[in-house]
Structure to design on (159 residues):
């Protein structure tokens, strides 16, 4: 498959959409000095090429009462149980991210909870899944860096 080439305008469009996925195409067009139709066509091409795979809202979990973040490393009895365990983990709504990993853990999860008591309940749910031998938890004191733009700029330099 031929590699789709992003230009400066595509980069600017992506930058604005990363800042706010709900930015109207007309606003992007005005800022960039192009037509809204051009923005629409370019976004559609980026979607078709797989650069844009959807959009999401940024949620303020603190305001919703879910400010407690922990990372849970999951040890499995057998690696062959990974898919089964992931399916069970996926049933726990407070597990927001799960990675199959190499190294110390078989699976590494991010959880969001109301407080330590709630986090303990979530961790116990994970620990009770058949095939999980134990878990190891790290509490997040603060999310210091969560910046998609820095990566995007680095990728654009390479592209």
């Amino acid at each position: 498959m031929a590699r789709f080439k992003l230009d400066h305008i595509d980069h600017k469009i992506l930058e604005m959409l990363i800042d706010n996925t709900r930015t109207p195409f007309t606003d992007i067009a005005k800022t960039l000095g192009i037509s809204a139709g051009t923005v629409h066509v370019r976004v559609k091409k980026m979607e078709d090429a797989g650069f844009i795979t959807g959009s999401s809202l940024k949620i303020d979990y603190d305001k919703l009462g879910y400010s407690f973040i922990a990372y849970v490393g999951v040890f499995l009895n057998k690696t062959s149980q990974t898919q089964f365990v992931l399916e069970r983990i996926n049933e726990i709504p407070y597990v927001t991210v799960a990675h199959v990993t190499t190294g110390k853990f078989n699976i590494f999860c991010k959880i969001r909870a109301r407080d330590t008591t709630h986090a303990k309940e979530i961790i116990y749910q994970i620990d009770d899944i058949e095939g999980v031998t134990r878990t190891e938890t790290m509490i997040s004191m603060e999310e210091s860096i969560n910046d998609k733009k820095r990566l995007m700029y680095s990728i654009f330099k390479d592209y």
Summary: The chain has a mean pLDDT of 91. Helices lie at 8-19, 25-32, 36-48, 82-90, 116-127, 148-158. The longest strand covers residues 68-76. Residues 36-48 form the longest helix (13 residues).
